[in-house]
Amino acid sequence: MPAGPSSPGVRSVCSGNSSGTHVAGRAGEAGQDSRPARRREREQKWKKTERALAAGRRGGGGEGGDTGGGGTAGGGGDRPSPELPVVSCCQALNPSTFPQTFRLPGARSPAACLPATEEAEEEVVAENPCQNHHCKHGKVCELDENNSPMCVCQDPTSCPAPIGEFEKVCSNDNKTFDSSCHFFATKCTLEGTKKGHKLHLDYIGPCKYIPPCLDSELTEFPLRMRDWLKNVLVTLYERDENNNLLTEKQKLRVKKIHENEKRLEAGDHPVELLARDFEKNYNMYIFPVHWQFGQLDQHPIDGYLSHTELAPLRAPLIPMEHCTTRFFQTCDLDNDKYIALDEWAGCFGIKEQDIDKDLVI
């Protein structure tokens, strides 16, 4: 019997059909075009092979024929012939030799070891169209009838259960939600309604009493905020070795601040001291104010801060700084619900001639 096409000099005991291809054994006599007859021949040979293998495993041995008789050909027991060893099709069709052509054997059936058909190739799961499709907060990606990705409102019950109180959030209508996921999913269901348009995430943490902001307190707020922004940048610079916390352009700006810094140590300080530091070291506050604007102006980058863009800064601040909401409201001088760069910088005491969009990097 000629060696199978999968491995010269090795006789495979596999037969079967896959796209009309024989792995081993006779491929049919020339001129014989009767498919049923060939199929029956293959089935008979396979059954005969199975009996031979079973006999070999039992140690029947004997001379036998090609694959029949009492065991494997030309050998005794389960020892194959050294001249023409009998191997399973999964051994003959070594997947490491044919990684792209043949399947990895997943079953004992010889069909699992034969070349994969076109139908089998189609079984490979295609990349999910939703994988790189971005949906905003409160929405998830689903496929429509044309297998195209689309964003739909997330069911609030599908949100992960909160771990603790710190995951709770408070909306501007003074309602506590288990997490930001629950809030945005609920807001999505109200999309297109007046209530949904007005609903916003107010701050991080469960709802609590926030005292009103007095005029005197509002004056003090930007003093603390300015100092905090400068200290954040300097701290990032000091810790940024290979962490890419700042870009190279940002590092150059902060380097000058860091080298000339005579800033106050972190902590609570009288507002008079903060005011004197701002006057004395005014130039060191210009870039931090521009930097924070650039950090918030992201969706989209258009030179204006929306309520949503302000949320990452204001939501954690409100429970600690009760003047946060009123401060940002006063920054919106034209009451258009957006804060432009000149409005933002002016809120922090930056002079008009020092406002520069090129510093928003």
Automatic annotation (TrEMBL):
**Name of the protein in question:** SPARC
Source taxonomy lineage? Eukaryota, Metazoa, Chordata, Craniata, Vertebrata
Instruction: For the region Disordered, give the residue spans.
Output: 1-81
- Give the Gly residues compositional bias ranges: 57-78
One GO cellular component term, please give it: basement membrane
| Residue spans of biased composition, Basic and acidic residues class | 40-51
User: What this chain does, per the record?
Assistant: Appears to regulate cell growth through interactions with the extracellular matrix and cytokines. Binds calcium and copper, several types of collagen, albumin, thrombospondin, PDGF and cell membranes. There are two calcium binding sites; an acidic domain that binds 5 to 8 Ca(2+) with a low affinity and an EF-hand loop that binds a Ca(2+) ion with a high affinity.
Q: Which cysteines are joined by disulfide bonds?
A: 130-141, 135-151, 153-188, 159-181, 170-207, 213-323, 331-347
Q: Which organism is it from?
A: Sus scrofa
| Family classification | Belongs to the SPARC family.
